[in-house]
Amino acid sequence: MAISDPFANSVKQVNDACGILGIKDKGLMEYLAIPNRVMRVKIPVRMDDGSIRVFIGFRSQHNNDRGPYKGGIRYFDPEGGVEYMEREVMALSSWMTWKCAIVDIPMGGGKGGIFVNPKTEKISAGELERLTRGFAYQISEIIGPQKDIPAPDVYTTGREMTQIMDTYGKLHGNTYAPGVITGKPIPMGGSLARDVATGLGTAYTVREAADEIGLELKGATVALQGFGNASTFSGVYLEEMGAEVVAVSDSKGDVLLPSGTKVAKVIKHKQKNGTVVGFPGSKKITTEELLTAECDVLVPGALENQITAQIARNMKCQIVAEAANGPTLPAADPIIYRRKIMMIPGILANAGGVCISYLEWVQNNMGYYWTFDEVAKKMEAQITKGFRDGYHLSIKHKVDMRRATMVLAVQRVVEAFEHKGIWP
């Protein structure tokens, strides 16, 4: 099967939103779709054995009409290779623009990555630090607290973010600049609630969606595809709201859980065994079986391109909340909409992370830090308002939530563009 082009998918979504808004200017449509800048760099690293290895890295800056670029840095090796990763990073930077606009954060979209997989490759801590600092050096001129604020993403952590912050500061006259990057550890200027942000935000959107369609969350069943940070905390907080997680998966397999299983027990099992597979009393299933399992809420929290048209025809849930970026192929969207399944697109469902990143940046800039509850409450207000604004437009234009939220985002970016104009 041919690999879907993520950037082509992102362009289609922009064009669809422009069509609904009646925007016919092809130049404006191209302006909205194409990144302002895509930087591709080589990063030579001296490995522990004395050899030199050259890595390829990217930083895509999509749009900054509403504020500085914002978006993660991932260390990953997608199936399509380096060229595919470039298209992927471009698409993800576009989705970050719309994500920020939907929750009304004064930032634009950026994304970065290095073609490497630290999970599967034998890379030492020293080699990884040299790679991280080398990449920070290469992009140091285009990032900054008022330019472009990266964050962690796939297979990157607060440690890498701290190394990037430290490298940037040393390159700029030993400046203390915690606002150059977010997702930092708490002692380095990080924000409370950052570790649970994406999952908590997803849970908030599911709560709002359930209220709109009349689904009682108490006793509702949830299937989690992926068991990383986003999916795990989605499950934890939905469980707190009264739901029950009935299926989970990770990179090593998918399982149905025994009735009454608590997420905390699955987390403990994975920490001990390195996978959710083999959880006592569970039944191993395929990924397709998980995505089409009997449940009220499906949370795809793995990677892109998971829900195909065929899977959409067989899904049995009432709500899909995309904790991952771009897990649903465009061909599946109209099928999901016709079947009256509430789709909460990733640019809204997983916007909790960028909400907290923004709030971390605000705290860094003012040098004053809020409590966990204060941060979570501010994020809840941002993401629930984004859901309500998007849902209102979906009813008004009679379109699914993906197109409605894109309409909302494009509308807000176009408004900023019209105020700024073109210069030089």
Sum this structure up briefly:
The chain is α/β, with parallel strands linked by helices. The chain has helices at residues 6-21, 26-33, 81-102, 125-139, 158-171, 197-213, 229-240, 263-273, 287-291, 309-314, 333-338, 346-349, 352-366, 372-397, 401-420, and strands at residues 37-46, 52-63, 69-76, 108-115, 148-152, 221-225, 244-250, 253-256, 283-285, 297-300, 319-321, 342-344. 46% of the residues lie in helices and 17% in strands.
Characterization of the model:
With 424 residues, this protein is of the alpha/beta class. Helices cover 46% and strands 17% of the residues. It is built from 15 helices and 12 strands. The strands form 2 sheets. It has a 7-stranded mixed beta sheet with strand order 9-8-7-6-10-11-12. α4 (125-139) crosses α5 (158-171). The longest helix is centred in the C-terminal third of the chain and has 26 residues, at 372-397. The termini are far apart.
Identify the notable features of this structure and list them briefly.
424 residues; five-stranded mixed sheet; globular; alpha/beta; seven-stranded mixed sheet
